[in-house]
Amino acid sequence: MADLAVDSYIIFTCHYFNENWELCTQVLGFEEMRESHRADNIQDSLINIIGTWNLTGKVIGISHDNAANITNAARNSQERDIYSSPCAAHTLQLSINKGLENRMCSNLLKLASDKVAAFRHSPKRTNALENKISELGQKNCALYRDVQLNGILVWIC
């Protein structure tokens, strides 16, 4: 029986516009990576999936995470006319994570999280806060706290 915690997979998706200019997404392939995650092995999988779907010469761009092996695989594929670009959302998330490592930032987030937790766990405090906000004529808003899920910062209200 395979241990999913140590198995490694790669997935290829295709994004395109249909005849009505609606954005569509199709999973082209999902396979276990039994070989080393070197660029040449990933490149072989990429070329294979492009060929399997008869997309040779039709792919105009590849968006990928910022890992060097995937970047090199995309750039060195046989499809030399393909535009290779790191995913903007992944790059932004890496930047945010780096900023959150700053001690001042992490201390402020911890302080804010503790304050939010104090209100969220006490209906009496929450009511007092809502009354004070209303008394000041301010718009009431929800309190949020951050949670780390797989390295992604998520805000929960």
Strand element count: 6
Coarse structural class: alpha+beta
Low-confidence stretches: 149-157
Could you say which overall geometry the principal axes of the C-alpha atoms support? Answer: elongated
Read across the widest sheet, the strand sequence of neighbours is 1-2
Largest sheet: 2 strands, antiparallel
Distance between the termini: 40 Å
Tell me what portion of residues adopts beta-strand conformation: 15-25%
Helix-residue proportion: 40-55%
Give the ordered list of helices and strands.
EEHEHEHHHEE
- Oligomeric state of the chains present here: single chain
Q: How much is the radius of gyration in Å?
A: 23 Å
Number of helical stretches of at least 4 residues? 5
Mean of residue pLDDT values: 80
